């Protein structure tokens, strides 16, 4: 993923970031960065560049929910960088609850810069609810 100046500026405006290092290259350089700096959670933009490989996990998207996202920041992400993103399924766990079962999937995405350093790690949790037939619903 190429980190583009315009995308950083658009994202910074969308999340109402007020620090000039997200908009002004001179301000960023004055603060010790190579170029404007992506605000926290900028990794969400990477989904727009993700390969359109379809539903590789085989989930029923009608029964899928976002279960949360955690970010670990290791290096600043600045305009002009090329990042490599590697995704790994960390865990898959089935749970039963009062309203039925669900499968909890945790995916880790590691963002590596051209220097080979980990810039950021994102852990995403996806929840897939059991179908009505799986939990003894009306279709069973």
Query: Biggest sheet, in brief?
Result: 4 strands, antiparallel
Following the backbone from N to C, one meets helices and strands in this order, namely HHEEEE
The CATH superfamily turns out to be Hotdog Thioesterase
What is the radius of gyration computed over CA atoms, rounded to a whole number of angstroms? Answer: 19 Å
Work out the strand percent.
Answer: 35-45%
CATH class: Alpha Beta
From the structure above, extract its key features:
mainly beta; 4 strands; elongated; 140 residues; Thiol Ester Dehydrase, Chain A
Produce a short descriptive summary:
It is built from two helices and four strands; from the N terminus they run ααββββ. It has 140 residues and is mainly β.
Write a structural description:
The protein is mainly beta and 140 residues long. The protein has helices at residues 5-14, 25-30, and strands at residues 64-73, 84-97, 100-112, 118-129. The chain has a single domain, classed as Hotdog Thioesterase (Thiol Ester Dehydrase, Chain A). It is 11% helix and 35% strand. A 4-stranded antiparallel β-sheet has the order 1-4-3-2, with no helix packed on it. Strand 2 and strand 3 (100-112) form a beta hairpin. The longest helix is centred in the first third of the chain and has 10 residues, at 5-14. Mean pLDDT is 87; it is low at 136-140.
């Amino acid at each position: 993923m190429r980190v583009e100046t315009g995308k950083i500026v658009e994202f910074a405006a969308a999340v109402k970031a007020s620090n000039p290092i997200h908009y002004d290259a001179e301000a960023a350089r004055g603060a010790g960065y190579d170029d404007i700096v992506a605000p926290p959670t900028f990794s969400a933009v990477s989904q727009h560049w993700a390969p359109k490989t379809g539903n590789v996990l085989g989930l029923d998207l009608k029964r899928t929910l976002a279960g949360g996202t955690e970010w670990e920041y290791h290096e600043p992400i600045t305009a002009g960088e090329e990042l490599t993103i590697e995704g790994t399924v960390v865990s898959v766990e089935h749970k039963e609850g009062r309203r039925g079962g669900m499968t909890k999937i945790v995916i880790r995405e590691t963002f590596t810069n051209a220097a080979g350093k980990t810039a950021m790690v994102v852990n995403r949790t996806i929840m897939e609810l059991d179908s009505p037939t799986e939990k003894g619903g009306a279709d069973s």
